[in-house]
Amino acid sequence: MGRQPVLTMTTISKTFPGVRALDSVDFRLFPGEIHALMGENGAGKSTLIKVLTGVYTADSGVVALDGQQVSFTGPMQARAAGVSTVYQEVNLCPNLSVAENIFIGREPRILGAINWRELRRRARALLARLELDIDVTAALGTCSLAVQQMVAIARAIDIQARVLILDEPTSSLDSSEVAQLFRIMRQLQNEGIAILFVTHFLDQVYEVADRITVLRNGRLVGEYPTAELPQLALVEKMIGKELDALERLDEQPKRELAAVEASTPLLEAAELGRKGSVAPFSMTIHAGEVVGLAGLLGSGRTEVARLLFGADRPDHGRITMDGSPAAIRTPIAAIARDIAFCSENRRIEGLVGELSVRENIMLAMQAARGWTRPIPRRRQDELVRKYIDALSIRPADPEMPVRNLSGGNQQKVVLARWLITEPRLLILDEPTRGIDIGAKAEIQRLVVELSDGGMAVLFISAELEEVLRLSHKVAVMRDRRMVTQLANDDTLDADRVMATIASGASS
Amino acid sequence: MTTTDLGNLARIGRWRLPRRHVPVLATFALLLVMYGIGVSQYRAFSDIQVVFNAFIDNGFLLVVAVGMTFVILTGGIDLSVGSVVAMTAMVSASLLQNGLPAALVLLIALLIGPTLGFVMGCVIHYFEIQPFIVTLAGMFFARGMCNWISNSSIPITDPFWTGVAQERIGDPRGNFVSISVLIAFAVVAVAAYALAYTRLGRNVYAIGGNPQSALLMGLPVARTKIMVYTISGLCSAIGGILLSFYTLSGAPLIAVGMELDAIAAVVIGGTLLTGGSGYVLGTVLGVLVLGVIQTLITFDGTLNSWWTKIVIGGLLFAFILLQRLIGIRKK
Amino acid sequence: MSEVRTRLAAASGQRLFWPLVVLVVLIAANTAYRPSFVSIEVKDGHLYGSLVDIVRLSAPLILVALGMTLVIATGGIDLSVGSVCAIAGSMACLHISQAADQNSLSTLFTALGLALGLALVAGAWNGLLVSVIGIQPIIATLILMVAGRGLAQLITEGQIITINSDPYRVIGAGYWLTLPVAILIAIAVTLLIAVLTRRTALGLIIEAVGGNAEASRLAGIRARRITFLVYVIAGICAAVAGFMITADVSSAAGSTAGLWIELDAILAVVIGGTSLAGGRFSLSGTLIGALIIQTLTTTVYAMNISPQTSLLFKAVVVIVVCLIQAPAFRARFARRRPPATPTVAAAPQKEQVPA
């Protein structure tokens, strides 16, 4: 590519309280290319995009458009300069028509009155350019998500956009809709628009992207032509392989699978699945067994957990517990069968921020008993004290509102909530994400202890080392399906799991 | 969605299009049925003057409900309208009694409502206090002002007022409407135009559809939100003037509970209380439905006035259920 | 000096601080205007005094507001309580007025039972619409607010039902152990609700549902049942308030009994520091809120201003209290002081897995 880049970002740094979100990151975008920005959670993708569009101001570094240094004060200004963004969630108004969604705020007018005829004509013309044949007068809410996404793109490119940022546009689309979207992306690419594409689907990257920039932990890992970066190498670069010194100390012998698999399974899922969420999968979990779920962000890990807990209703397959069929369609049903679920999204799905640590810890047990049978305050204090000590929750004040705690301590509060219910199956979705290294080691140790004590654990984590250290077996997810399940014996290491994730083949 | 072809998807979309018109059409059908019942039961009901009277008796409600439509379309609510109507009538009556010229009184009366609306809009937007609470305070304030001005009804004897009140515009057969009805129609026309053909109107719909999106799309959310409460205040002020034409007085306890009638008319007219969907035309039909219910009950003679409320409650339930069933309450 | 300031700052951070300040200021203003305001004397074995009157008159509002507190804590609202007051009061009076012996206790209890039954149905109707059909609370209860008023008038047939029942009159205007019965009932119901919510886990569960509905669902809380229950409780509270209002004047008017009490109740709850968005609720705050509203009304009476003008003051108090408690308003003032870190915007880990 001999041309000048349309956009360059050099040595961008951005720090949030306690977190270095971006550390001297460089990024280039050429006209007429589709450029994938890849990275796991917390890698800094979102922050980079927000710095680019002016939502955040970088602490240091330079953003230049066509060689001119720019500093946008917000997405509107960025758009006016030709940098448009389309988000994962369609930020349009479902009650307005397709045409109006494209043009609202800059409708063609005659003497102050909106010229609807002209507006529709322009909308049709614009959609025709994207080779979309849809009724522009239909309410947007009646269109499929894919169409909505494309309307959002149409709105984004209507003003002379030169850079189009697509932030996870495909995460709620099915394969044919994705194909449609890609056709449009190529169309725009041919028109010379530079497209920055964020996705978690590896196949999609290799299908459309010309180049890939990988971020990890706020740092630039590198910029590569897609053709020169094999999938395995990409996964390695995204996940990273450096073991933390502290974690290395903890290294334990591999866990023995045969011993735990001898008994009847505690839970058996047969062809369990839900449309639009995760393809049917089968798996067994035994008492005392830790099953790891490995896969990239958005690969369907969380969806598996939610189906097993009844947080989402499965529309396919069955669950068997202790050898007899179990209808788990609601969390209440799951809890009645001694299943517990710590969501990855603590703030939204885990904690009631206003309530105290004690109240949050007691919530699940109290809910199971019903409100008419309160747990005596003395017993509450006892239990809470015990788990605050056992999990070293800090500050150790049971009456503090839980929203004032740090992420790691919040995670422990959610854990404590479920541990006091003495579950037989504990589902942990990213329990160690975003928490400090000390808390992380504690939680890992706890998982080992619990499983040694006979509890079954489904352990979800983006960190392969962690999964490998704790699990008896590892189920590998990719693109919303369970690719395979691997016994965690001596032959299994991070490289082999990565290879499985990258290839998608059941090796 | 298993359909693979986007064109197909779009065609399904096209077929579903009339959905947002369903509530208005349902209201229209209901109105026809009620009118039909009236005509079949009572001969006098077929007299065209019955329809005119429905407008004459509810002209001020129509204007107020139009203002309420703007607020509700953004997903807000304005409880102050009834009190503002009363306050406007009260201020007019009081100023006229003090001998101020009619034109000046009109001007002052028409300024008070929008000012209060503007202030309430600012508090709602900038201090993020729920519209329910802020307009409730506005309601108390305006009602308090009425009583502060006078504890009893003030008659209006101003020649301009009495002239307007007695003016009948009609055809040779004796059917007529009042000037108030024409003013109400003018308000309806301006409002319908504003909602359909101005950026302000479209922003109102956008905010009601999804306020976050509206902000991200760069629409002037603050200005629009403050504007709708100002508009509602203006409509209440106009409604107050029309009411003072109708009663030729200002009374501190008039129009109590009118906010409920206005909200009911808007909802029965097919506007979603959650905002984003609805038409001024629907509100006109909603007001007419209320008017025809009253007329039917008056004609019946054996039914009592409280049946009006029960029927309105029932209709509210039916229409809210209808909105849920056809699923336009898009999340 | 600085210690006083920090203590003051700590105190003003308490939820009940500002409502209490307002109440104290109101009482102080009254006392300054008329020193006899705070005096309480015993006449014929009954307690008399402005303060007693205020509490007695605020009893119905306290009841309605307590029920409203629970509803608001779940993130809902109940506009229909005023109409339910009227329905229950009218029903009780209707039954008593038709009885041969209006003073018989069995008549009284049948009347109360019938009326409570109606209120139960009304509450269940609201609960059904909100929790099962899933209609927005403000809309769902608007239906009964409008129709209920009509139903109450239907019961009274548009008349004012006057009764002559001493036992019924006691509910609103009687005395027992020197105290007005209305106050005793209000205290009893307050204690009952306090016990019901704080001695069981109901309060915690309500706050959890209102604070974070999704997290509550995933913790295994049956949110629908709870939502249903609070509307039923609100209905019953409204019914008892309806008895008081009608008993006080020994008559029931379907069109005016409990009119606009829902608005006062919502105000009392909000002034008491319970957020309209749901979550943590404060029964004592609501109590103070209701007393503030009644004190305000009484103050205006005492100062010889027309009672309706009290609405003006109410508007001012509402706005002041709400502004003081509004985070956006506080933030605006905080900004004038040294540039404290503005709300830390979303931390970097904003990326979410698609649901």
From TrEMBL, chain A:
GO MF annotation list: ATP binding; ATP hydrolysis activity
Organism domain of life: Bacteria
Topological category with respect to the lipid bilayer: Peripheral membrane protein
Coiled coil (residue ranges): none
Main location (coarse class): membrane
InterPro entries (alphabetical): AAA+_ATPase, ABC_carbohydrate_import_ATPase, ABC_transporter-like_ATP-bd, ABC_transporter-like_CS, P-loop_NTPase
UniProt xrefs under CDD domains: ABC_Carb_Monos_I, ABC_Carb_Monos_II
GO cellular component terms attached to this protein's record: plasma membrane
Domain ABC transporter stretches: 7-242, 262-504
Subcellular location: Cell membrane
Gene3D superfamilies recorded: P-loop containing nucleotide triphosphate hydrolases
Keywords: ATP-binding, Cell membrane, Membrane, Nucleotide-binding, Repeat, Translocase, Transport
UniProt signal peptide: none
Name of this protein: Sugar ABC transporter ATP-binding protein
Organism: Catellatospora bangladeshensis
UniProtKB/TrEMBL annotation, chain B:
Top-level taxon: Bacteria
Keywords: Cell membrane, Membrane, Transmembrane, Transmembrane helix
Pfam families in UniProt: BPD_transp_2
Membrane topology: Multi-pass membrane protein
Gene Ontology annotations for the cellular component aspect, listed alphabetically: plasma membrane
Bilayer-spanning residue ranges: 20-38, 50-73, 103-127, 176-196, 226-247, 280-299, 305-326
InterPro entries: ABC_transp_permease
Compartments where located: Cell membrane
Record has Membrane as a keyword: yes
Main location group: membrane
Single GO molecular function: transmembrane transporter activity
Keyword Cell membrane found: yes
PANTHER family: ABC TRANSPORTER PERMEASE PROTEIN YPHD-RELATED-RELATED (PTHR32196), INNER MEMBRANE ABC TRANSPORTER PERMEASE PROTEIN YJFF (PTHR32196:SF63)
Protein name: Sugar ABC transporter permease
UniProtKB/TrEMBL annotation, chain C:
Record carries keyword Endoplasmic reticulum: no
Localisation per UniProt entry: Cell membrane
Main location: membrane
One Pfam match: BPD_transp_2
Membrane-spanning parts: 16-33, 54-73, 108-135, 175-196, 226-245, 257-278, 285-305, 311-329
InterPro entries: ABC_transp_permease
CDD domains per UniProt: TM_PBP1_transp_AraH_like
GO terms of molecular function: transmembrane transporter activity
Annotated keywords: Cell membrane, Membrane, Transmembrane, Transmembrane helix
GO cellular component: plasma membrane
Membrane-topology annotation of the record: Multi-pass membrane protein
Superkingdom: Bacteria
Protein name: Sugar ABC transporter permease
